[in-house]
Amino acid sequence: MAERRAGVTKALLYEALKAIQGTPARHSDDVCDIKERLGNLELRVGGLAGQCASLSVRIDRLEARIERIERRLELVEG
Asked: d(Cα 36, Cα 42) in Å, to the nearest integer?
């Protein structure tokens, strides 16, 4: 009678344990997918940082050109 306590049978326990055994493999696959997606995000963020730095350099050059033009046209003192 100990086997039938609360409706739990060996077959039911076996099925539950079998289902639990597959869970780590699914989690492992999920973790691999998440790592791959995170790596892609890191690459994109790194690319954006490089683009921002490049834009900053271009803006600095444009500012210098505008200042030279303003001085030539005597739009500003100095």
From this structure: 10
* Distance in angstroms (rounded) separating the CA atoms of residues 70 and 1: 98
* Token duo for residue 30: 């999920």
Q: Taking the model in full, what pTM does it have? A: 0.54
27/19 Cα distance (integer angstroms): 13
Within a 13 Å sphere around the CA of 33, how many CA atoms are in the beta-carbon half? 6
Distance, CA of 28 to CA of 34 (rounded, Å):
10
Q: What is the pLDDT of residue 73?
A: 94
Backbone phi and psi for residue 8, each to the nearest 5 degrees, phi listed first: -95, 125
